[in-house]
């Protein structure tokens, strides 16, 4: 069995068909490259063959490169992995260049055979880099197909000629969204932007017809012709100068310089634009090698691609529990969260009964879905018919009898144990004995809330993040008595609504909030210490956090912070460690600066609610110290308060899988994605170095930075988290 087959038709057109056995999507392996090259050689070498079509027997063309390719290239080179990678990449370039030159004389540019790509559906990554080396790209008129180069989203960049070819084909400005944002387009949009050449009913037939009439001049790529100029201009031209300057500023502004792939991509584009094509691809290969050798890219691929997908496919689902797909969902409470949960569920085709204490409130909750669909329609992401269908699935009511027949309930009423107990009892009287009951509480222990339900084995936490339609993580929390069927139900539900689940055990703030609250608190504590607020905010962003801690607390609101602080203090008593934080937080609340919703918080806002800059009243009350700390010191404090909490969550059994700890951190609260997550970052640093940093921070700032026992033990034994806890999930 081979990944590619070969056939020549009566008119002398050879078709190479990609069809990886046993997989629903083609992915490229090392053997795949060899097989493709052999067939290209065969077609080019056979005098009877007039041209070659490369297509796929599956509904899509290809989903990209098998990530083991990189690992195998590194391994094969022994103690020179970078050289192994570079040589491996150059072999791929050689093959693609062979397709592009197609046997023509490099001087006269004559004698080549036409090679066309025919894409039945999705073509991403190497699945588009191969077509880009062909002479013409035909795609089926399949609106579901995605065409593009999404590599940057997992911490690498298109390194099999995609970068060099696309910049020469479209120019740096038009190529920027494809390369720098990983933007995917459907075939029509891809044609409109020049990514592909034609959209056809039958792309193979269209490709064959084109081959039979193609002239020699049609086969010569613009960049192989004399006098070629990059569209929009090379760097040292008036137009090009502006483009490159702008692109550089834009990338640095967006990434704060923390993503090695974005910087390397820009360098490859800039340096490549100054030299002929064959030199440019060597430059691309060198920068790509550098990115692949950086531990950040391996960690990002592992968390954002491999482990995210593994969790979505049920890596932690209890074995042996039959399918628990949800058909009818009851949502209790039609407020901000309930309305969002109803929307994402109805969008996934699930019938929803949306309950609130007043009919108007329930209707308002349903109207949230109408609003989101209107937005989607205005962006052409949905149709009126889809909106009507979706709305027809949501029944807003105050009548608990409507919950009859539900197989899952998600409760999202006020965060008050009494109110929750009351609606739980009312619901239990209306539902069948098979229905699973979930609560969306953010702070109340699941095991306590389960007491209001007569079947604690069927009671679970399903914790969404706000805004529900945009946040991709769902935290599933097992109470002391939660059974396997409830866990499977929650996981199957999260799969249906296409989000990523993690399963954790029941403890204060579960996992995500447990780690993010100390981050916010550390930022506020620094204000009390007299550290300049811009230093705090920029230090966070320069280390890859999406929002500084002060902006984050403005977004989530100061009053919520005060509420959590009071509840935590009440629960912890004398051991409560955050008095210094409260001094700032409570003062802000006293000033009425409740955050963004009040258009006044740590930041100042204009009348329309637009953030203007840090509020100057802050330094009037908390004077900035004369001597300011070093940037790295601030960054270490902000990151270590989070990662140490993640380690403690693992140590105490709240987290049972470090993959969930990493994926959950990036998707749940945006923990520095370049690092691959808290555990990946500690592995990059090494446990020994991490313990050393903790000791310094503990001496300067107190016991919250004390290295957890687990970390100290790992430092002593020279262990890593992935080596010890998930050896099968090592970095790619
Ligand atoms: P909200 O105040 O916006 O909505 C609560 C809704 O519950 C209101 O519409 C209210 O009328 C309704 N309600 C109250 N008592 C009721 C009763 N007895 N019967 C029926 N309906 C009743 O609150 P929210 O922000 O949507 O939060 C809901 C839950 O989700 C809370 O447990 C909260 O901790 C949790 N949560 C909130 C967030 C967040 O960011 N807001 C995030 C995760 C979890």
CATH-assigned fold name of the largest domain = 2-enoyl-CoA Hydratase, Chain A, domain 1
CATH architecture of the largest domain: Alpha-Beta Complex
Strand order of the largest sheet: 14-13-12-15-16-17-18-19
Summed up, the helix count is 30
CATH-level-4 superfamily name of the largest domain: 2-enoyl-CoA Hydratase, Chain A, domain 1
Dominant shape: globular
What's the number of extended β-strand segments? 21
Name of the level-1 CATH class of the largest domain: Alpha Beta
Mean pLDDT: 95
Number of domains: 3
Rg is: 28 Å
**Helix content range:** 40-55%
Low-confidence stretches: none
In terms of quaternary structure, what is this? single chain
Q: Any ligands, ions or cofactors bound here, and which?
A: nicotinamide-adenine-dinucleotide
The N- and C-terminal alpha carbons lie at a distance of 27 Å
């Amino acid at each position: 069995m081979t990944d590619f087959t070969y056939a020549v038709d009566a008119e002398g057109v050879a078709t190479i068909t990609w069809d990886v056995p046993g997989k629903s999507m083609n992915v490229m392996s090392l053997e795949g490259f060899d097989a493709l090259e052999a067939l290209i050689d065969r077609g080019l070498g056979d005098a009877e063959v007039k041209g070659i079509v490369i297509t796929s027997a599956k509904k899509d063309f290809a989903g990209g490169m098998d990530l083991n390719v990189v690992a195998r290239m590194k391994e094969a080179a022994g103690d020179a992995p970078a050289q192994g990678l570079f040589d491996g990449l150059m072999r791929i370039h050689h093959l693609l260049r062979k397709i592009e030159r197609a046997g023509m004389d490099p001087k006269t540019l004559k004698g080549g055979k036409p090679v066309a790509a025919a894409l039945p559906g999705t073509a991403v990554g190497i699945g588009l880099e191969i077509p880009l080396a062909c002479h013409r790209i035909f795609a089926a008129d399949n609106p579901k197909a995605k065409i593009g180069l999404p590599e940057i989203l997992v911490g690498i960049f298109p390194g099999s000629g995609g970068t060099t070819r696309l910049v020469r084909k479209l120019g740096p400005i038009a190529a920027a969204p494809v390369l720098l944002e990983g933007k995917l387009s459907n075939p029509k949009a891809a044609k409109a932007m020049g990514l592909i050449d034609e959209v056809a009913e039958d792309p193979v037939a269209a490709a064959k017809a084109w081959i039979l009439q193609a002239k020699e001049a049609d086969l010569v790529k613009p960049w192989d012709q004399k006098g070629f100029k990059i569209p929009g201009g090379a760097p040292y031209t008036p137009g090009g100068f502006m483009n490159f300057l702008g692109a550089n500023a834009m990338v640095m502004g967006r990434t704060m310089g923390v993503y090695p792939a974005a910087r390397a991509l820009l360098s490859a584009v800039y340096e490549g634009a100054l030299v002929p094509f064959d030199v440019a691809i060597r430059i691309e290969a060198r920068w790509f090698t550098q990115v692949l050798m950086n531990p950040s890219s391996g960690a990002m691929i592992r968390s954002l691609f491999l482990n995210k997908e593994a969790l979505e496919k049920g890596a932690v689902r209890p074995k042996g529990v039959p399918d628990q797909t949800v058909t009818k969902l009851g949502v209790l409470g039609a407020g901000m969260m309930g309305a969002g949960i109803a929307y994402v569920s109805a969008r996934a085709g699930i019938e929803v009964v949306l309950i609130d204490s007043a009919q108007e409130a329930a209707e308002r909750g349903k109207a949230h879905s109408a609003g989101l669909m209107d937005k989607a329609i205005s962006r052409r992401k949905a149709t009126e018919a889809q909106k009507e269908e979706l709305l027809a699935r949501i029944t807003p009511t105050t009548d608990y009898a409507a919950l009859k027949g539900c197989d899952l309930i998600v409760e999202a009423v006020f965060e008050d144990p009494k109110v929750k107990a009351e609606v739980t009892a009312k619901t239990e009287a209306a539902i069948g004995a098979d229905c699973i009951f979930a609560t969306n509480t953010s702070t109340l222990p699941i095991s306590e809330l389960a007491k209001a339900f007569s079947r604690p084995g069927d009671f679970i936490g399903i914790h969404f993040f706000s805004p529900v339609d945009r946040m991709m993580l769902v935290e599933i929390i097992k109470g002391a008595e939660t059974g396997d069927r409830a866990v499977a139900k929650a996981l199957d539900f999260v799969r249906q609504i296409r989000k990523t689940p993690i399963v954790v055990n029941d403890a204060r703030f579960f996992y995500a909030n447990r780690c993010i609250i100390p981050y916010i608190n550390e930022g506020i504590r620094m204000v009390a210490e007299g550290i300049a607020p811009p230093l705090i905010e920029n230090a966070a962003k320069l280390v890859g956090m999406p929002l500084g801690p002060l902006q984050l607390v403005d977004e989530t609101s100061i009053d919520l912070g005060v509420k959590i602080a009071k509840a935590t203090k009440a629960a912890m008593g004398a051991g409560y460690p955050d008095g210094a934080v409260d001094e700032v937080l409570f003062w802000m609340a006293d000033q009425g600066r409740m955050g963004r919703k009040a258009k006044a918080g740590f930041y100042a806002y204009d009348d329309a609610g637009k953030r203007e800059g840090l509020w100057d009243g802050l330094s009037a009350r908390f004077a900035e110290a004369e001597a300011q700390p070093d940037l790295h010191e601030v960054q270490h404090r902000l990151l270590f308060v989070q990662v140490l909490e993640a380690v403690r969550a693992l140590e105490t059994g709240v987290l049972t899988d470090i993959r969930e700890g990493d994926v959950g951190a990036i998707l749940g609260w945006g923990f520095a994605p370049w690092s691959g997550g808290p555990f990946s970052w500690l592995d990059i640093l090494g446990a020994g170095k991490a313990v050393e940093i903790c000791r310094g921070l503990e001496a300067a700032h107190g016991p919250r930075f004390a290295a957890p026992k687990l970390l100290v033990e790992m430092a002593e034994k020279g262990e890593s988290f992935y080596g010890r806890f998930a050896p099968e999930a090592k970095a790619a």
